[in-house]
Amino acid sequence: MAISASTLQRWSIPLLAFAVPLGFVVWAFPTGLAPLRAAGIVTGWLGCGLLLVSLLLMLREPRLAFWLGGLERMYRWHHLTGVAAYVLLLLHPLALAANAWPASRLLAWQTLSPVTESWPVWSGWLGLLLLMVGLATTFIPGIRYGVWRWLHALLGLGVVVGLLHLILLGIDEPVLPILAVATAILGWRLLRGDLGLAARPYVVAAARRLTGQAVEIELRPLADPVAVTPGQFVLVAFAHGPVYRGCGEFHPFTISAIDRDGALRLAVKALGDCTRRMLSIEPGVAARVIGGFGGLLGNAGAAPQLWIAGGIGVTPFVALLNDGPLLRPVRLVYLYRREDDATYLSELRAIAASDPRLTLQAIATGNDLPDLDRLLPAASDLSGVECYLCGPAGLVAALQRALGARGVAAQHIHFENFEFR
Amino acid sequence: MMRKLYFASTATFWIVVLGFWAGSALTPGVQQPAVAADRDITAAELARHATPADCWMAIRGAVYDLSPYLPDHPSRPSIIEPWCGKEATEAYATKTKGRAHSGEADAMLPKYRIGRFAPGGAQ
Q1: A145/A361: higher pLDDT
Q2: How far apart are the C-alpha atoms of A408 and A293, rounded to whole Å?
Q3: How far is the alpha carbon of B42 from chain A, nearest alpha carbon, in Å?
Q4: Which of A133, A289, A345, B103 has the fewest CB atoms found within 10 Å of its own CB?
Q5: Does the beta-carbon distance from B10 to A170 stay under 8 Å?
Q6: Chain B residue with Cα closest to A95
Q7: Which of B21, B23, B96 sits opposite A119 (nearest CB)?
Q8: Is domain A200-293 annotated with CATH 3.40.109.10?
Q9: Within 10 A of A103 (CB to CB), how many other CB atoms are there?
């Protein structure tokens, strides 16, 4: 029986996260050892397997992202497997030392001691410390993205050093192929994702201010355009222009429209250093585009839909409305702080006036989270409705709770947060 | 949640590492395991114990019965097993690119000592 794409997308990452570490443990399972020593070895191999899966999940390849259920899902699991691997790898040396404790406390410390003059021990410590520092930067908010990504790269180095630790211990037989795979994944990500070998060349054709803090950028392809659909996002790196100074880094931007000639329009809100500079971007600036990724409404059926957008999160819905008339009834609840801060508001009002299938509920909320109970449709009106959410993480979480309290099952609530750290 | 897990696990790790260090520092002197009667063991007798199940090795003038330790050795068996029944000081001292085994290994060895190595001794 053929496996459907959605089943594969749903189960591919959990299966990988389960099968790879378990495969390593089955291959290297120690027999006849004391339980604590065996536990130390098992936690090491489980951590190693989870780190390999975590590395795979940081690749930014549209086809891989499709089969693994989307880039955002990959990033969620990348974080989950990375932290789980870290905890297991912390347990690994502690269990080995604990095994020696009953026989000799000195021997237990010798097992751990970083001052022991031995490369296998030094490399183990170095790998663990690199993971520790790399993860710490992930969990400390406020670090600039440009600095953060280099500190985060320490995690990749930590994986390689950790594998060298195994080779120095004389365990080279299964480790050399694992090291080759890990290095290939890191190199693939560096060359295609960070240095942009996977990117297609575009040029900024026009830039239009949407609000005081948002701009719509039109990108024209200089070669074959990327394959994208409305509702998706792309990763774009902008170069320098005559005045504009591009960051050169790839950042995710949601598409607001796809023209017939392959031109893309992107909505950009000034949320950081890079995006603030983009408010003054000028035509002629070169851009490199990778994608498309995601697909908030990728598997939408014929059921009526409720779209709820917060701020710039309205962009994927705008792209869908720009793509043509709606095929099903849609209620769009658009939440924004102030009217002069609301992107595409006049365009949405015009579409709602001409398309009877679209009901627009546009609400200025101020700076506080609105009273969602008052805004959302009654439970009886949500029966059989597919709900799509896009906006800040706090709003999406509150909406999930509110919809859940109205009896909407989790499988009928779809959302993207666009969190890529 | 993952942030909490990271900080809690990292803090716990360092507390346990400190605990191991304190346990070692507070141990009075080096605890040497009981050593069997220190008899002379010849090269011929050593060579009769050359299988993984019965594995003696001579290292730095002493003979060790490493049979119970072999399953614990981190490298694959083909690296250590050929040294059963042999004088293995050179292998012990040049494990990785000419570097010696760790202090952990040195601390572990006395537990397995069974006698002095007397290569030319009478049988």
Answers
A1: A361
A2: 27
A3: 30
A4: A133
A5: no
A6: B16
A7: B96
A8: no
A9: 15
